[in-house]
Write a structure and sequence with these properties.
Blueprint (H helix, E strand, L loop, with lengths): L9 H4 L6 H9 L6 E5 H5 L7 H7 L1 E6 L6 H8 L8 E5 L7 H9 L10 H9 L19
Parallel strand pairs: 1-2, 2-3
Helix pairs in contact: 2-4
């Protein structure tokens, strides 16, 4: 693990749907400075999430610019959410050009996540049946606007 990071069980312990704004509100009680790390595809969709202004108020939004993405779509989305533009941090990401949305779809189609994630993550996804073929996302795994 990385000593600068902590694992939170706040979403796993919550009953019912889980939303990013609520998770950040619970985590903000610690007084720590919060950073929400998103891929550019998810950040560009932020105006459609539940309570995006609250998300921007509670956390910096660190956006990974994967190959083939630039900041234009994210900046357009930020203009639609009060306070978001001031909280954006962009950083390059040179890893495999696959989004979480694409990975979930691949698994639901019965295709392996191998080579799209580290081996340990692929095993965890398959063994935990997080995204079963023909199913929808598992509980709490796509919390922002489901």
């Amino acid at each position: 693990g990385e000593p600068a990071f902590d694992v939170s069980t706040v979403e796993a312990e919550r009953e019912g749907p889980s939303y990013t704004a609520e998770t950040l509100a619970a985590m903000a009680a610690s007084g720590d400075e919060l950073f929400l790390i998103l891929g550019a595809d998810s950040a560009a969709d932020l105006p459609n999430w539940k309570a995006p202004e609250e998300i921007a108020r509670l956390a910096h939004v660190a956006v990974a610019l994967r190959p083939g993405w630039d900041d234009a779509a994210v900046n357009k989305a930020a203009a639609a959410v009060a306070g978001l533009a001031e909280r954006l941090i962009f950083f390059p990401m040179s890893l495999i050009a696959v989004s979480g949305t694409e990975l979930r779809a691949r698994c639901r189609e019965g295709r392996s996540p191998r080579y799209y994630t580290p081996d340990a993550v692929a095993r965890y996804i398959v063994e935990g049946r997080l995204y079963p073929p023909g199913g929808s996302d598992g509980p709490g795994l796509h919390p922002h606007h489901d």
